[in-house]
Design a protein that fits this description.
With about 1200 residues, the chain is of the alpha+beta class. Among the domains are: about 250-325 and about 340-390 and about 425-435 and about 445-460, YVTN repeat-like/Quinoprotein amine dehydrogenase (Methylamine Dehydrogenase, Chain H), CATH 2.130.10.10; about 470-565, no CATH class. A 5-stranded antiparallel β-sheet has the order 14-15-16-17-18. A hairpin with a 5-residue loop joins strand 2 and strand 3. Helix 9 runs parallel beside helix 21. The longest helix has 26 residues, at about 900-925. The radius of gyration is 39 Å and the shape is elongated. The model is unreliable at about 1-5, about 205-235, about 240-250, about 325-335, about 415-420, about 860-885, about 925-935 and about 1185-1205 (pLDDT under 50). It comes from Poecilia latipinna (sailfin molly). It is found in: Cytoplasm, Cytoskeleton, Cilium axoneme; Cytoplasm, Cytoskeleton, Cilium basal body; Cytoplasmic vesicle; Golgi apparatus, trans-Golgi network. This is WD repeat-containing protein 11. One of its GO terms (biological process) is animal organ development.
Amino acid sequence: MIPYTVNIKLAARTLTGTLNLQNKTAVDWGWQGLIAQGCHSSILIMDPKTAQTIQVLERHKANVVKVKWSRENYYHNLSSPYCLRLASGDASGKIIVWDVVSGTAHCEIQEHSKPIQDLEWLWNQDASRDLLLAVHPPNYIVLWNGDTGTKLWKKSYAENILSFSFDPFDPSNMALLTSEGIVFITDFSYSKPPSSAGKKVYIASPHASPAHTKPAPAAAPAPTGAKKALNKVKVLITNEKPTAEAVTLNDCLQLSYLPSKRNHMLLLYPREILILDLELSQTVGVVAIERSGVPFTQVIPCTQRDALYCLHENGCITLRVCRSTSAQEEAAEQSVQELVYDLRSQCDAIRVTKTVRPYRMVICPVNENKAALMVSDGRVMLWELKAHTGRSVVNPSSGLSPLYSPVSFCGAPLGPNQKRIQDLSLNSMISQTLIAGEAPPPSSNQQEVQLKFLLTGLLSGLPLPPFAIRMCPPLTTKNISHYQPLLAAGTSNGSVLVYNLTSGLLHKELSVHSCEVRGLEWVSLTSFLSFATSSPNNMGLVRNELQHVDLPTGRCFAFRGERGNDEPPIEMIKVSHLKQYLVVVFRDKPLELWDIRTGTLLREMAKSFPTVTALEWSPSHNLKSLKKKQMAAREAMARQTVSDAEQSSVESSVISLLQDAESKSETSQAISAREHFVFTDTDGQVYHITVEGNTVKDGARIPPDGSMGSIACIAWKGDTLVLGDVDGNLNFWDLKARLSRGIPTHRGWVKKIRFAPGKGNQKLLVMYTDGAEVWDTKEVQMVSSMRFGRNVNYRILDIDWCTSDKVVLASDDGCVRVLEMAMKSASYRMDEQDLTDPVWCPSLLLPRAALTLKAFLLLQPWSGTFTMDITQVDYNEKVEIKGLIQEQLNSLSKLFGDESDLNFWTVASHYLQLFAQARQLSVTSEGGSEETQPPSQNHLDICHDILCESSYFQKFQLDRVHLQEVKRSSYEHTKKCADQLLLLGQTDRAVQLLLETSADNPSYYCDSLKACLVTTITSSGPSQSTIKLVATNMIANGKLAEGVQLLCLIDKAADACRYLQTYGEWNRAAWLAKVRLSPAEGSDVLKRWAEHLCSPQVNQKSKAILVLLSLGCFYKVGEMLHSMRYFDRAALFIEACLKSGVMEAAFLDFARLLRSLGLREGAALWASRAGSAGEQLMEELFQGEGGVPEAVLGEDEVEVGLESTE
């Protein structure tokens, strides 16, 4: 059972149910660690770790079609804290930017009135974090400031835009998926709209290729795949519009860039996924489903590894990982044919029916090892990817190479004895995909990994409407110790759901009836009666089910015993105020009166009994007077017994108390109090009937009120009786003053009226066909009102009071809402809620608290123990503490979902490790030059692109060109490949390609001469200067690419880079520097690029810092972090540098300076901090004095003290 506390003040909340078809695309998993999902016009915020809904945002009037969390790619401090910002777009074209914690809207944006097609926050510039790009149908792209709601620019395109995707490596590139094809934009910037209309590329629908019709022979699967892809390329990407026959229908479901490697894009079709290389715009990989397979509906590419999460139509999620090209030597001639994505894991499918189908999947952007599946019936299934070691049992012919675990974790190599695989994220579970020409790491310290999906959480919603709801009896002073605010909801399939409104969680689901539940009444705090009627037979008779349900045990029994078959349907059931009696009203049959305590039928009315249209029990009864009489009788008896025994010393009152306590249990059973009810007949006459024990008396009759129509419902509390009729009139009777007052509401049929609980609380809730109102019966005036179509877009199915000041409404959009009395549908503040499980989400905290927590988790001296056991890594040896600092920062940024922190520390920890190893190498082999990049077992993942080591980056580019070469299908492709090969310095292969040009091609002569030139280039002085002159002229006259090629031919790549940078081709220059220049020359080019990135008009300082990190310019990074006021990051970075010993050179120079000034003590201190190089200086300092002074021996203490002062 859920542990509960009594919360008298319940939070307003919404219990949601099934989704609308328009909500299909409205789901997003943010860096902050929460999932947002649209449900009709509201937005649920869920915590995937504890599987509970923590907020429901209500402000949209139409169905929500898109939601997007803002990215966390910026530095967090008090002025830009961790916050939960969410943008949502609805079917009427409105965009709302939310502050999710308080449930309020930052701003509302409206441009057109059609559904928003796509939304994305811009994450890649430091200027502003508030920029939101939206697609407004049919063909507009608008950039908004998401904080103020102002429009920055708007641009229209020729075709209807379906969605867009940003290039994760270059923010100025984006692709639009339109109804006819793809539009590539290369000049996107936040300051002004794109000037050009973009480059259009048409897609012809991939036709059913032979691979689908006949099964491919098992022996050689790869060549058929490659041929198939080649066939497809010819129809796939063309610059001219294809003829009408060729285009059947553009059934491309999705387009997105691959975040794991640059310039690759993915197109999703129902039966295949195509991987395009954008430099050649052609297919380099195909993932096809065989004929019997289940089609795709969505695919999410991963960043950390070259892997795809695919969602299929049966709700099955599969993970496909790119096959290593250098894995098997025997398959080498096939393996280069194309990129192959192997199925590595899949989860269970769901049962798909007409109403239950999978909508969307989202994956955790921080760790990429958890997926959530949204199902149309409101369920959210949370799957987690788990890795375990073990050999795979695959047949060798399938070509599946084993998956291995990574060699290192957070930059620190893993020892062979570490058996547990870190399940923290995707890149700590499986190692990188190897590329051709790369030696696989020694298998001694790698373990084979098997992946499997585990269902770790499930959220479920309400079933389909209609509902009948009833709140349990109200809180009183007597039941406060064990009260639970339970709401029972009867559903159309016969089950009753009981919700605990303190937490909003499902308390119990009971399958009570076999047909739709029509109504519920509670008979105590833990039991209720519910009734259901089957559909009528041809005589209009039904099967009535009236069940008594006991909640703690779940026992239910038929309250009317064998009765109930073939009789008129039950209209309503009413329980008396003391829960003694029950009236059951039928449609065409006199009512029945039951005793609830004994379960006996007291009276079945005679046939002549009038037809009941409305009925209500009176709140007055004679229980108190009965109890008084009983007490008096007992007291008299007690006095007599005392006087008989002459024990006058004992006070009689004490005895009466004792006896009272004894008899309390009996009295409550024995007393049958008198209660009354009133009802109206079809003429509007009011009858009054008294019930006492098993006697039923007919009382006074009041003639009908002429102004009222047929009475539909009655409510009675205290001295006020209210009648509502089918024409929308309310009649208020004051029984004490004997006054009546009729008020026409002009709202049509009064469906239900209910008084609020609580002594003296005379508020009344009225339900109409088109909404509801709250009335104050003392003043006889309306307090608040809601109406379908005016201020809400849902119809109300049932109403009740939830506490004395909150109402609960069931509506036809499948939700149950708890609202304030004003009935404004409002989101609630997250901090007002009682959640059963604590939620870890720093963004929910006050800005100051979140940063304090972060500082507390970071700033504990690492040499000591670490409290709040976050890392769960027990380091024994002193050496490994170096790795701990970066690892902590890594895991902490994941914990906080801080994107910019994570990027920074991933790159920093990698290069700190690298340069520290290099230093140790250069110190050991004294002659080694500082510049050589050390051979490292692990590279930075290729998803970091230009930030990777040059050697690895070159291999990757060669591998890619090799693949492009196999795939080329036209002269343009061949030309591009040759150009690429020349730049990469692969002259022989380039010449072969140039000589392939056919004689009837206009550039035949040109290419042949170029081939001759490339083969005959010698490094003689004159030819070099001539070529350089020609190249410079070409560049000056606008032939930049050709000039750069010539410069690369004569090994003047550094000049080429400089020219590229002068002409603004910064990315190209960086690429060239990485593949052609020595680290020393390359670092100049990249440093210039970093300066350019820092310039105010580009404003990408955070990217510049990453570039400088990859060059090992650690001082500069420290300075920049400090100048950008990133104080905590700067301090920790400098400390990390000290720990890994890459800043010791500075200490050494300072020590020498101090020695030259004659300050030997100071020089000794700084030399002691400069590691092995400083030891020589120490020896020089203290040669004549026999050893080192004590001041230096306490070095550890000094070091700790100094670091804290830095």
